[in-house]
Design a protein that fits this description.
Number of helices: 17
Radius of gyration: 22 Å
Low-confidence stretches: 1-17
CATH superfamily: MFS general substrate transporter like domains
Helix content: over 70%
Number of strands: 0
Structural class: mainly alpha
Distance between the termini: 56 Å
Largest sheet: none
CATH architecture: Up-down Bundle
Mean pLDDT: 82
CATH topology: Growth Hormone, Chain: A
Number of domains: 1
CATH class: Mainly Alpha
Amino acid sequence: MPDEPVPPDQPDERDEPDQPAHGLRRAMRAFKNRDFTIFWFGALASNTGSWVQNLAVPYVLYEVTQSAFWVGLATFFQFIPAMLLGPLAGSVADRFDRRKVLLITQSLLALSAVALWAAWAGGVRSPGVILALVALSGVFAGINIPSWQSFVNDLVPREDLLSAVALNSLQFNAARALGPGIAGIMLATLGPSWAFLLNAVSFGFVLLALALVRTRQAARTSVLTGGFLRQFRRAMAYTRTQPGIVVGIVVAVLIGGLGNPIFQFTVVFAAEVFKVGPRWLSLMNVALGVGAVLAAPIVSGWDDVLSRGTLVRWAMLLYGAAIIAFALAPNYAIGLIALVVVGGGFLAVISATNTAVQVIVADHMRGRVMAFRIMAFTGAYPVGALLQGVLSDVIGPRITVAGAGAILTVAAVWLGLRPDVLARLDDEHDEDIGADGA
């Protein structure tokens, strides 16, 4: 029987893309891409190992020094290289095959993890040595991150980018739920050296994934000219012409400096405020990851209904309020509930702003603009962690974290009163192909 004609005033549904309407299926749509799925699971295994180490490092530093300042200093040394190396890393991400870049940087990160394990297993207990090895890892990570975040775009078509970015954030936060739980058990039973060794071994999974994937990366439309600093200045000039990218970066700086240090301060709160051991400390970090996992389907599953600007407006307000609730929690159980909300708020804001930048940026500028965003975020994070570490030693962790949450909440209220500002997060993709090869 022949197809019935479609009235001219009605769309032909047979021409519509097969996209789920809302909810979990829509949120997970990037998994239909084989290479993204392989990379996602490899990254999940590797990042789980990284989060085991991310809890073990501040734990051993606090055990050795009994100072929140040293915990903040570890964060500073871990992330400050990413800010300093941003111009070079962004140019590398735009100039070279990102898959090959990641294979090299992930191999170097694996070697630095082996070095940290060997030092601790060999009896080294010097905070200075630990910080030096953390800084070395930070150097390799600083080169890695812009290529890593841009690489997601090389694995999926544009219509699946929001799902891929949100799932990439989900993977990171699922690892944050799994890693600290494993770390707590290992620290309480086997000791820190096994935690460090597990991280070193976990890099094998992401290296295997990178060896298996095939990218859909488009051919370069032009060749970059000039040194990497000149290329980076072009990217900064370009960023100023894109209000949506500017708003995304500003919000990321607020989150990095005021909210993100709470991930390291769980160690301080466990020891000084709630007075619990490593297993209960690990559960606090698991709560952060669980909150992010619960928020992920909302972020990418309802993106056609909930704009990025609206999502950031309410999630940032909830995030700030939850940080205050955690800081002032009268007992461990209430603090744990607050951390679930903190994790969900963090995932929503960071995923939405990261997606905004990824969607808006012109393809020829992607690596350098992502590097600029990473520089801003990772620059604010260690500075905020270091400052909050100093204040915590002077006025106490509760007042310090509550104050940071209050400032973040005030910023969220101000942005909420300026919906025209947050609406720029929903700007369209810039189709500029870069006439001068910049």
